Amino acid sequence: MRIFKLAAELQNYALEQKRAGRTIGLVPTMGFLHAGHASLIDIARKKADIVIVSIFVNPTQFGPNEDLDKYPRDFEHDKALCIEHGADAVFAPEPGAMYAPDASTWVEETVLSKPLCGARRPIHFRGVTTVVAKLFNLAQPDCAVFGRKDAQQLFVIKRMVRDLNFPIEIIAAPLVRGEDGLALSSRNRYLTEDEHRRALVLSRALRAAVPALKRAGYTAAADIVAAMKQEIAAAGGQVDYVEALDADTLAAPTEATSAILLAVAVYFGTTRLIDNELVQVK
Amino acid sequence: MRIFKLAAELQNYALEQKRAGRTIGLVPTMGFLHAGHASLIDIARKKADIVIVSIFVNPTQFGPNEDLDKYPRDFEHDKALCIEHGADAVFAPEPGAMYAPDASTWVEETVLSKPLCGARRPIHFRGVTTVVAKLFNLAQPDCAVFGRKDAQQLFVIKRMVRDLNFPIEIIAAPLVRGEDGLALSSRNRYLTEDEHRRALVLSRALRAAVPALKRAGYTAAADIVAAMKQEIAAAGGQVDYVEALDADTLAAPTEATSAILLAVAVYFGTTRLIDNELVQVK
């Protein structure tokens, strides 16, 4: 497996693969890889001739009071996982290899990025779309795999790809949970044992809400959200948001809504976790 | 020569050419082509296997009170010119083929786009960078040719390409003037005979300023600019701006400045013309 630290190295490699007629699958990650990431690599492996995994804790998507500095890193473990799952190359740049000191260009999605995490983390998605556009231009993928755990990110990226005409298929991979139901996340390692146990309320509350929402439709969304907030607070979670939105527009659901994104962001201690269910209501 | 109206048609063609191992040169234009555009096509023709000319009066780079509706169009003439200069394909989409009704993604350069035309046309460069990023993803060029007449646009595009890692060489083509010195522009056709004659002051004032600026350096910039404003006003031009800026930063020139962009935007009647000289001062 090749390991690239410099943007130009990755791009030369990718362009060479394309010239040789090979297809490329990209799996963009922030590292500290778990079984969720592994499932993305497996999907790319089935889909493309060449699989590139990027590992980059992107500073431009972290706010000033967020966990950029303490975000967990373990390159040796990540490397081993990528090899085990058959990646052809890992791109692991330092921030200075990704951003010039006078970098001044941003890619910004201005609608789907606004609610949910976008309302709480105002520069987050601008950082995500910018770095993903850069990774697309560097890795030249035919397809890129993103997890449904970051549902809003997936929607924003799909919109960017459509709006900017990237010739790339975005593949949405199922959310992967631990045996106890907690959505896998690199941030789970911040949790104490007690916080981890309390955080199980997220998947429990989401799972319980799905049949109710399916049955009663969008008019029941407000009541279901209120009940979830109560249940989560009772378990010791500090709710950042619990929302039920039209999955196409990320606006309030209406009669026309065919799928509802039920999304939560909740603090346990100082750790902010997100989880969601996509509910077909038509 | 192929003519494409749909984004997907162009992209399929471009990807097919790339798979066949051919290089692509892109010449983005707003049509109503003149000898300046022809020189860009000639450069692309020498540089790449396949030359694609885009002809698109991009609505997102026009402000609400600008000349979008009356911008001159002549597709038959443009087509003939492209054939004559050996283009392989023309991409001439309708606005609806370029922008979805709910398009919500912008590419924005936030430093070099701010002074000069950016200060007078606040959404202009955001529209330019967005449409050029889209054209890059559709036409998949190895190189793209832009004229030095739109000096600030050239700088902004170069910065975007660097910041977003597009694998594209940006080629700067010399400004082309008519025999009387007026910089060629599709907008020149708006000018009355009298306005055209008055507008010759632009190239005259710029040409006269070059040796003075070269000799005296950046400390003389303010005096030179003031003299140019006076000369242009005396000839009946209404100055939008005359500025001398560091060509690397588009900020005020300093001791460290190695090249100065001397740029003017001036109304003659209701027609706004731009012109510039790039002056090496070191």
SSE string of chain A, helix = H, strand = E? EHEHEHEHEHHEHEHHEEE
Number of helices of chain A: 9
CATH class of the largest domain in chain A: Alpha Beta
Task: Count the domains of chain A.
Answer: 2
Mean pLDDT of chain A: 97
Assembly form of the protein = homodimer
* Rounded Rg of chain A: 19 Å
Label the CATH architecture of the largest domain in chain A: 3-Layer(aba) Sandwich
Tally the beta strands of chain A: 10
Strand content of chain A: 15-25%
Structural class of chain A: alpha/beta
In the CATH hierarchy, the third-tier topology of the largest domain in chain A is known as Rossmann fold
End-to-end separation of chain A in angstroms reads 45 Å
Task: Give the largest interface.
Answer: A-B, 33 and 33 residues
Active site (chains A, B): 37
Pfam families (chains A, B): Pantoate_ligase
Subunit structure (chains A, B): Homodimer.
Family (chains A, B): Belongs to the pantothenate synthetase family.
Folded structure, characterized:
Chains A, B: It is found in: Cytoplasm. Two copies of one chain form a homodimer. Chain A is of the alpha/beta class and 282 residues long. The first copy, chain A, has two domains: 172 residues, HUPs (Rossmann fold, 3-Layer(aba) Sandwich); 91 residues, Pantoate-beta-alanine ligase, C-terminal domain (Pantoate--beta-alanine Ligase, Chain: A,domain 2). Chain A has nine helices and ten strands. In chain A, the strands form two sheets. The first copy, chain A, has a six-stranded parallel β-sheet, sandwiched between helices. A three-stranded antiparallel β-sheet of chain A has the order 8-9-10, covered by helices on one side. Chains A and B meet through helix 1, strand 5, helix 6 and helix 7 of A and helix 1, strand 5, helix 6 and helix 7 of B. Strand 5 of chain A pairs antiparallel with strand 5 of chain B.
